[in-house]
């Protein structure tokens, strides 16, 4: 039997939402032994109630729930405020995975999955989202990346467009910070998946969906993007100079 990662949870609260009690019990056990405070819910209404009572630091959310499905639960949770979500999906349901990413899931794991891998994914997402205080409160601290009216503080995990804070998911933030750190360079989707997600393999539609969502938040006209350009046959390029020429 594979051994769960231990330590590292540092008391972060994780809400596990799955109507299969066996899956929920195994996932909860692994997360508990890794140092997380774990809450469980077996359906959507229960998950929303528990999240409202004790705001989780991260949610592990099954897509196929009775009554209210995981997509609607994710929408409603994100409507209450930002919270990282790792979605559990059935193998081969690419359309469902894309929908999960569209409504704001930060990551997904396909069933059947390794509980140890899930714990590692939880740790990876939480490490990226844990903020470091920025005394200025406006993303103007040292190390801030700036271009085309955008400013991103990788340490404080804050992003602004023309002085207005952007509501980004964990992966959207990471993607924007990466683009700002590498202006003018074209990246293949495989490169972005490796350098931003830290994955050596995976569903490349994950990158496509996140780029589309990010464009919706940083572009003046997402249908005609000027900042995050598609480079046909290659991938994407962040091009801040295009707005200066306009």
Automatic annotation (TrEMBL):
Coiled coil: none annotated. Residues 142-240 form the OmpR/PhoB-type domain. This is Response regulator transcription factor. The modification 4-aspartylphosphate is found at residue 62. It comes from Actinospica acidiphila. InterPro entries: CheY-like_superfamily, OmpR/PhoB-type_DNA-bd, Sig_transdc_resp-reg_C-effctor, Sig_transdc_resp-reg_receiver, WalR-like, WH-like_DNA-bd_sf. The keyword Transcription regulation applies. The keyword Transcription applies. One of its GO terms (molecular function) is transcription cis-regulatory region binding. Keywords: DNA-binding, Phosphoprotein, Transcription, Transcription regulation, Two-component regulatory system. Residues 142-240 bind DNA. GO terms for cellular component: cytosol; protein-DNA complex. Residues 13-126 form the Response regulatory domain. GO terms for biological process: regulation of DNA-templated transcription.
């Amino acid at each position: 039997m594979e051994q769960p990662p231990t330590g590292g949870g540092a008391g972060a609260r994780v809400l596990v939402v799955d109507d299969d009690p066996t899956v929920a019990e195994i996932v909860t056990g692994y997360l508990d032994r890794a140092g997380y405070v774990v809450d469980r819910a077996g359906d959507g209404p229960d998950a929303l109630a528990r999240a409202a009572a004790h705001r989780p630091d991260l949610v592990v959310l099954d897509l196929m729930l009775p009554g209210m499905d995981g997509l609607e639960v994710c929408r409603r949770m994100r409507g209450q405020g930002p919270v990282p979500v790792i979605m559990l999906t059935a193998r081969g349901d690419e359309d469902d995975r894309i929908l999960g990413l569209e409504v704001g899931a930060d990551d997904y794991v396909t069933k059947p999955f390794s509980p140890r891998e899930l714990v590692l994914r939880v740790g990876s997402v939480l490490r990226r989202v844990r903020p470091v205080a920025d005394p200025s409160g406006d993303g103007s601290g040292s190390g801030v990346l700036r271009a085309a009216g955008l400013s991103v503080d990788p340490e404080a995990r804050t992003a602004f467009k023309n002085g207005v804070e952007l509501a980004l998911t964990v992966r959207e933030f990471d993607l924007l910070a990466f683009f700002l750190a590498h202006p003018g360079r074209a990246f293949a989707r495989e490169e972005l998946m490796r350098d931003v997600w830290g994955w050596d393999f995976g569903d490349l539609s994950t990158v496509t969906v996140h780029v589309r969502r990010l464009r919706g938040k940083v572009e003046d006209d997402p249908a005609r993007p000027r900042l995050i350009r598609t480079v046909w046959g290659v991938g994407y390029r962040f091009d801040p100079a295009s707005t200066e020429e306009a």
